[in-house]
Amino acid sequence: MAGIGVEAIAVVTGCFLSGAIMSVFLITIPVLIATTKQPAKLVNQWRCVYLSGHVKGPAIATTTGLVYVYAAWSKYAVGEQWRVFALAGATTVSIVPYTLTFMQGINNALFRADDMAGKGVEPSWADAERLVLRWGRLNAIRALIPLAGGIIGLLGTCKMLSF
User: Is residue 128 part of a domain?
Assistant: First the structure.
Protein backbone atom coordinates (compact mmCIF):
# COMPACT_ATOMS: atom_id res chain seq x y z
CA MET A 1 0.00 0.00 0.00
CA ALA A 2 2.85 2.40 0.72
CA GLY A 3 3.79 2.28 -2.95
CA ILE A 4 0.55 3.97 -4.00
CA GLY A 5 0.47 6.78 -1.44
CA VAL A 6 1.18 9.70 -3.75
CA GLU A 7 -1.19 8.49 -6.44
CA ALA A 8 -3.91 7.87 -3.87
CA ILE A 9 -3.53 11.40 -2.50
CA ALA A 10 -3.94 12.84 -5.99
CA VAL A 11 -7.00 10.69 -6.72
CA VAL A 12 -8.64 11.65 -3.42
CA THR A 13 -7.97 15.38 -3.77
CA GLY A 14 -9.24 15.43 -7.35
CA CYS A 15 -12.41 13.56 -6.41
CA PHE A 16 -12.85 15.81 -3.37
CA LEU A 17 -12.66 18.86 -5.63
CA SER A 18 -15.20 17.33 -7.99
CA GLY A 19 -17.61 16.70 -5.12
CA ALA A 20 -17.17 20.19 -3.74
CA ILE A 21 -17.91 21.74 -7.12
CA MET A 22 -20.87 19.44 -7.78
CA SER A 23 -22.37 20.28 -4.39
CA VAL A 24 -22.71 23.89 -5.54
CA PHE A 25 -24.85 22.70 -8.46
CA LEU A 26 -26.84 20.10 -6.52
CA ILE A 27 -27.33 21.92 -3.21
CA THR A 28 -26.27 25.56 -3.15
CA ILE A 29 -27.83 26.90 -6.37
CA PRO A 30 -31.25 25.30 -5.70
CA VAL A 31 -31.23 26.70 -2.15
CA LEU A 32 -30.33 30.18 -3.40
CA ILE A 33 -33.20 30.11 -5.87
CA ALA A 34 -35.68 28.64 -3.37
CA THR A 35 -34.94 31.15 -0.62
CA THR A 36 -35.42 34.42 -2.48
CA LYS A 37 -37.42 35.89 -5.29
CA GLN A 38 -35.48 39.14 -5.20
CA PRO A 39 -33.19 39.22 -8.24
CA ALA A 40 -30.69 41.61 -6.63
CA LYS A 41 -30.35 39.29 -3.65
CA LEU A 42 -29.96 36.24 -5.90
CA VAL A 43 -27.10 37.69 -7.93
CA ASN A 44 -25.46 39.00 -4.76
CA GLN A 45 -25.68 35.58 -3.12
CA TRP A 46 -24.19 34.06 -6.28
CA ARG A 47 -21.29 36.54 -5.97
CA CYS A 48 -20.70 35.38 -2.38
CA VAL A 49 -20.67 31.72 -3.47
CA TYR A 50 -18.33 32.53 -6.35
CA LEU A 51 -15.92 34.52 -4.20
CA SER A 52 -15.86 31.73 -1.63
CA GLY A 53 -14.82 29.14 -4.21
CA HIS A 54 -12.78 30.99 -6.80
CA VAL A 55 -9.55 30.81 -4.79
CA LYS A 56 -10.03 27.43 -3.15
CA GLY A 57 -10.98 25.50 -6.29
CA PRO A 58 -7.99 26.52 -8.43
CA ALA A 59 -5.65 25.98 -5.47
CA ILE A 60 -6.94 22.42 -4.98
CA ALA A 61 -6.79 21.73 -8.74
CA THR A 62 -3.22 23.04 -8.94
CA THR A 63 -2.14 21.07 -5.88
CA THR A 64 -3.75 17.93 -7.28
CA GLY A 65 -2.03 18.48 -10.63
CA LEU A 66 1.33 18.91 -8.88
CA VAL A 67 0.80 15.73 -6.88
CA TYR A 68 0.08 13.89 -10.15
CA VAL A 69 3.27 15.40 -11.64
CA TYR A 70 5.21 14.11 -8.64
CA ALA A 71 3.57 10.68 -9.01
CA ALA A 72 4.45 10.60 -12.72
CA TRP A 73 8.03 11.67 -12.02
CA SER A 74 8.36 9.05 -9.26
CA LYS A 75 7.15 6.32 -11.60
CA TYR A 76 9.38 7.55 -14.42
CA ALA A 77 12.43 7.60 -12.12
CA VAL A 78 12.08 3.88 -11.40
CA GLY A 79 11.15 2.86 -14.94
CA GLU A 80 7.44 2.29 -14.32
CA GLN A 81 4.46 3.45 -16.36
CA TRP A 82 4.10 7.16 -15.65
CA ARG A 83 2.13 8.68 -18.52
CA VAL A 84 -1.25 7.81 -17.05
CA PHE A 85 -0.48 10.01 -14.04
CA ALA A 86 0.69 12.83 -16.28
CA LEU A 87 -2.60 12.53 -18.17
CA ALA A 88 -4.59 12.51 -14.93
CA GLY A 89 -2.81 15.67 -13.83
CA ALA A 90 -3.28 17.41 -17.16
CA THR A 91 -6.95 16.44 -17.17
CA THR A 92 -7.42 17.84 -13.67
CA VAL A 93 -5.78 21.19 -14.35
CA SER A 94 -7.72 21.54 -17.61
CA ILE A 95 -10.44 22.87 -15.33
CA VAL A 96 -8.71 26.26 -15.64
CA PRO A 97 -9.00 26.65 -19.44
CA TYR A 98 -12.55 25.25 -19.29
CA THR A 99 -13.48 27.92 -16.77
CA LEU A 100 -11.85 30.71 -18.74
CA THR A 101 -13.34 29.55 -22.04
CA PHE A 102 -16.87 28.56 -21.09
CA MET A 103 -17.64 30.32 -17.82
CA GLN A 104 -15.96 33.71 -17.95
CA GLY A 105 -18.77 35.29 -19.96
CA ILE A 106 -21.49 34.16 -17.57
CA ASN A 107 -19.33 35.18 -14.60
CA ASN A 108 -18.97 38.66 -16.09
CA ALA A 109 -22.72 38.91 -16.75
CA LEU A 110 -23.51 37.94 -13.16
CA PHE A 111 -20.96 40.40 -11.77
CA ARG A 112 -22.45 43.15 -13.95
CA ALA A 113 -25.95 42.30 -12.74
CA ASP A 114 -24.81 42.46 -9.11
CA ASP A 115 -22.93 45.72 -9.70
CA MET A 116 -25.99 47.27 -11.36
CA ALA A 117 -28.24 46.06 -8.54
CA GLY A 118 -25.88 47.79 -6.12
CA LYS A 119 -26.54 51.00 -8.06
CA GLY A 120 -30.30 50.52 -7.84
CA VAL A 121 -30.83 48.96 -11.28
CA GLU A 122 -32.18 45.53 -10.46
CA PRO A 123 -32.26 42.79 -13.11
CA SER A 124 -35.53 41.01 -13.75
CA TRP A 125 -36.12 37.80 -11.83
CA ALA A 126 -36.19 35.86 -15.11
CA ASP A 127 -32.78 37.22 -16.14
CA ALA A 128 -31.19 36.67 -12.72
CA GLU A 129 -32.56 33.15 -12.42
CA ARG A 130 -31.56 32.27 -16.00
CA LEU A 131 -27.98 33.47 -15.43
CA VAL A 132 -27.59 31.66 -12.11
CA LEU A 133 -29.07 28.42 -13.47
CA ARG A 134 -26.85 28.57 -16.57
CA TRP A 135 -23.81 29.17 -14.38
CA GLY A 136 -24.86 26.19 -12.24
CA ARG A 137 -25.09 23.89 -15.28
CA LEU A 138 -21.68 24.99 -16.55
CA ASN A 139 -20.32 24.48 -13.05
CA ALA A 140 -21.74 20.93 -12.95
CA ILE A 141 -19.92 20.16 -16.19
CA ARG A 142 -16.79 21.67 -14.67
CA ALA A 143 -17.13 19.29 -11.71
CA LEU A 144 -16.68 16.35 -14.07
CA ILE A 145 -13.17 17.47 -15.07
CA PRO A 146 -11.35 16.65 -11.81
CA LEU A 147 -13.55 13.55 -11.52
CA ALA A 148 -12.25 12.41 -14.92
CA GLY A 149 -8.70 13.07 -13.72
CA GLY A 150 -9.46 11.07 -10.58
CA ILE A 151 -10.83 8.14 -12.57
CA ILE A 152 -7.77 8.13 -14.84
CA GLY A 153 -5.52 8.31 -11.77
CA LEU A 154 -7.43 5.54 -10.03
CA LEU A 155 -7.22 3.27 -13.07
CA GLY A 156 -3.48 3.96 -13.23
CA THR A 157 -3.07 3.31 -9.51
CA CYS A 158 -4.91 0.00 -9.84
CA LYS A 159 -2.79 -0.80 -12.91
CA MET A 160 -5.92 -1.09 -15.04
CA LEU A 161 -4.71 1.63 -17.40
CA SER A 162 -1.18 2.32 -18.57
CA PHE A 163 0.62 3.68 -21.58
Answer: yes
On whether residue 163 sits in a domain, the answer given is: no
From the centroid of its chain, how far is CA 9?
A: 17
Rounded to whole angstroms, the Cα distance separating 136 from 25 reads: 5
Q: Which tens digits make up the pLDDT trace of 114-150?
A: 999 999 999 999 999 999 999 999 999 999 999 999 9
The Cα-based distances of 10 to 55, 64, 127 in angstroms read 19, 5, 39
- State how far the Cα of 82 lies from the Cα of 137, in Å rounded to an integer: 34
Q: Give the contacts of 21 (CB within 8 A, at least 6 positions apart).
A: 53, 57, 139, 140, 142, 143, 146
* pTM summary value: 0.93
Distance, CA of 110 to chain centre: 18
Total tally of structural domains belonging to the chain: 1
- How far is 52 from 35, CA to CA, in rounded Å? 19
Q: Cα–Cα distance between 95 and 133 in angstroms, integer?
A: 20
Is 162 within a domain?
no
Range of the domain at 126: 2-157
**Cβ contacts of 48 within 8 Å, gap of 6 or more:** none
